[in-house]
Amino acid sequence: MGKRILGLVLISVLAGAAVLLSVGQRVPSRESALPLLRVLQQHEKQADRAVGAVIRLSPEDERRIGAEIDASLGGGLSPGEDGEELETLVLQTGRSLSSAPLVRRFRGRYEFRVIWGVMVVNAFALPGGYIRVLEGLAVRFKRHPDALAAVLAHEIGHVELGHCADAHRTREWLQKAGLGPAGDLAGPLRALAELHFSEAQELEADEYSVRLLRSAGLDPRAALKAMDILAGPSSDEARRGPAEVLIEGLADYSETHPAGRERRARMRRAIDALPARAGVAGR
Amino acid sequence: MAEPNEVKELREAVEALNREVRSLHAEVSELKKAKGAAPDSARPAKDPLGLRSRKPAPPAPPAPASEPAAFVKTAGISTEQFIGERVLHYVGMLVLAVGIGFFLVWRAAHTGPTEKVLMAAAAGAALVLLGEWWRSRPPYDKLTSGVTGGGWTVLYLSAYAAYHFPATKVLSDPSAELMLLLGVAGGMILHALWRDSKALRLFSFGLTYIVLFICGAEVASPFVFLVLLGASALIAVETGHADILIVSAVGFYLNYLPEYRLVVSSPEETRSLAAFLPHAAPLAGGYLLLALLPLLPRAKARLIGTGEERPLDAACCFNAVVFAGLAASMGAAYFKTLTLSRAFGLSLFFVVPGLAYAFALPRRLAFASTAPVLGLLILAGGVFSMVSPMLKMFAWLGVSTLWVWIGLLLDHKAWRVSGLLTALLTFGFYIHVVRGSPADRLSASTALYLFAALSYLASRYYRLWLKGEVSAWEEPAKELWLYVGSAALVLALWGSLDPAPLAVALIALAIAGEFAAVFFGRIHLWAQASALSLGAGLYSLFIDYGPDVLEAAAVSPRLLTCACVVAGMAYLHYADPTPPEFTRPWKHWAQAGHRRWLSWAMAAVASLAVYQEFDPRLRLPLWAAGAALLYYLGSLRDEPHLKAQAVILCMTTAVEGVFSYLLYPKPLLSAPSHTDAALYWGSSLLLLLNLWWSKDSRRRLTSLDAQASWVFCLLSLTMIALYLVKELDSYRLTMALSLEGILALVLGIVLGYLELRLPALLLLGGCVVKAVLFDTSHLPLPERVASFVVLGIILLAASMMYVRIGRHGQKDPGAGPD
User: Fold this and answer.
1) What CA–CA distance (Å, rounded) separates B576 from B637?
2) Where do the structural domains in chain B lie, given as residue ranges?
3) Which of B452, B478, B687, B726 could connect to B488 by a Cys-Cys bridge, CB 3.0–4.6 Å?
4) Is A283 on the interface with B (CB under 8 A)?
5) Of A10, A28, A43, the CB nearest to B498
6) 3-state class of A133 per DSSP?
7) Alpha-carbon distances, residue B188 vs B194, B255, B710 (angstroms)
8) A31 to chain B: closest CA residue
9) What is the pLDDT of residues B90-141, one digit of tens each?
10) What is this structure's pTM?
């Protein structure tokens, strides 16, 4: 009898909670596989981080690796009419960031370059501090130097947090230990790891960029502005079918960056978490 | 070779001879008896010629050519007589027939149309008479049907040719032609009825309709066929031959086809309901005539329950199906759409007779089931053509459940099953509508709530009204409605609530479902509730609360939702309101197994909620506390799965500690606080509490406890050691690790836990290795001294303790404290 009374009370409480959730939510919830995927992705490359604590890759080795990759990329086509102006903008912005106190691993040694003829809106970081900006991104951010700084700070974050080194550390160590073929055998696995940074690493780089902007004396809210310029329309549709949820989950995994909706929110929380500084408010 | 009829005559003659012999034998016996001799009648008369044996009579020996065969002598007919009386007869008939044929051919080329027609008619009449004459003359009676039918065909063709062929055209008035044809048809039909010949009967009716179809232009109005159909029906009833109805139905609809073509090809500007109805009226009349015929008392008495049921059934089914197809297609082609009102009107042609059949006729008749199905299909077409998806859904729901309830009230399978199959399509409509605007979604969900209620009622009345009266294949339908109702309810909730309140509502529904199952005694309801409780937990793992969930409300909706779901599942698992004996008949899964799965789902939901809701540094103590609670409950209730969950949670705690504390990127870290350190240390030590419970000898300890104790101990000591490695260096690290080792050793000796002593010894050994290999070469001398001295003292103290106290703990390494 007691169990039944308890059950009835519980049903009433649950019903009340359901009503409360239905009425009190400011933002509607929706079905999605992303929360569960995030949990997996948070630890996707933790193995690299654990390996990094044991197998150290010296900054010199990392820089050498980065130089080799950079040399193989080339500079692309010749710059256009305003190429010199864009190149100068990228260089100046990057150098001011790389000399901030928060930059420790390759401070003062970062190299920034524009790859011409590729109109994709993207930038990427190589081990050792080589930051490359594609022409499409440089053109889009031409009139928003503060947002460009946020993008460059994000890429610097990948280098400073060791994300770039993770992809090459194991192979480098095996080759040094005279186990080159083993490194080659590990090649396909590493190739998969090199495809992109994990979503967790991207979010960490976002958080770093906010801190770096503050450290360099810039407004951290420029990171949100950069998101607005970069991000496409995000779907906030609450009611979706199982097929749409599945496609979103699969597409998210193959995307180079997490969905804008989530990144904006986390970036805003990171900005709010910064200690207040005169003249540069967190909100 | 003897001819068959001569052998027959021979046998008849021999039998006559035998009868005469037996008669004579009997007379002799009587005479002997009269004189005093023993009669010889005990023995059966011999069969002198072997005719009584089963074997066929041996063939007569071949007669010499010079002597005629025995049968000739037996029959008493000479060859000459045979030729004269029989052979000449046939040859003469044949020659005469050929001569007549030549005559007819010659005359046909030299005669006028009238004479040709008359000659053909005469030939036809002659054949008919010949057939009649042969009827009583075996073996020619076998040819009667063919010859008679052929004769009537010739007469038909003669009548047809009298108007349609220029060479034989004698009639100029199509009405006269029609009357002539009908007259011939009537004669043939009367002849067939008089003779009660099935073949001739079917042929006569069929030929009538076919010829009229060919003469379509002469038939001024399709109502003529309606009259013919009526006449056919009357003849069928009065003669008790339902097969007439099949042929008549086919002929009627065949002859309606020109009218059909006329209607669908009419100019669009002239189309209207008023113009349509006169064309449709004969079609409807013909259908109703046959559809309502079985309800007439006289027809019912003469055609149902007699040998005519099957052809009647076939005729009525054919009538219904063809009418449905013609009427629906004609209406759709004429009006371009099939609206609900028109579909409703058309469906009444089936629903009303269907209801009448259900009351008046036996269930075994197929057409009694065909009518409701066709009516439903037509109504479904009308509903499907509705524009508004929401109205479509309500209408579909109404129609399908109405059919089911009629089937329940009338106890008629066809209504029930067709309604059920149609009702299942409601879900398809719902999925389509629910993607629309919020208002559409709410309305669709309301409809589905209604559907759920009706389904539950249907399930209840299936069980109440149809006990033991349904066939084996319909037996599952009693429970199927229960599943339909539950599925409808869940989908309705899905459409009307957001995912977060939905998850809470589902777990509440699961609890209510288990109560209801026990109350109503429905094991299937329990099965649904148990599946729903698991489903609610899994569903809650796939809810995205939005990126601003932490700012969404005073209480985090994610935390509230997960807490409610976990509370519901915990109630089912720990309080378990369902008696085990109630669920024993359910064979697909056991109640105990379900509760185990529920505990795992609960652990997953709670873990994910903690992971998403709390800062990484707060997760650690929460998981450690959760592991301790789970292990305690597992020990208390003797449930291994709870202990296993505790072990996994401990591992998760350790992994979280490593990644969120030890390996987290320094640039993203704030300055470490005492609170963080306290949380980390507290979590590590909390793991040791599980070690206490896993070694508690007051309860029954299993191998799982033994394995778990090692896991707890190793994890705890490793977490502490890694923290020290991260925070300290050089000689301080050596001293701190040594201190950890000695404390663990002391605890292990005092409590008698091998799980503490062995790792402690390993730790101390590691300190020795570090001191020798690293401190020696990398530390300056003062620090080196401190490192070695402290380590040495600790090792000596450990050895002393082993000597003095360790002997007690070594009695039973796995035992608890003394």
Assistant:
1) 13
2) 75-200, 614-725, 728-818
3) B452
4) no
5) A28
6) strand
7) 10, 20, 104
8) B543
9) 777 778 767 777 776 776 677 788 888 888 888 888 888 888 888 777 767 7
10) 0.70
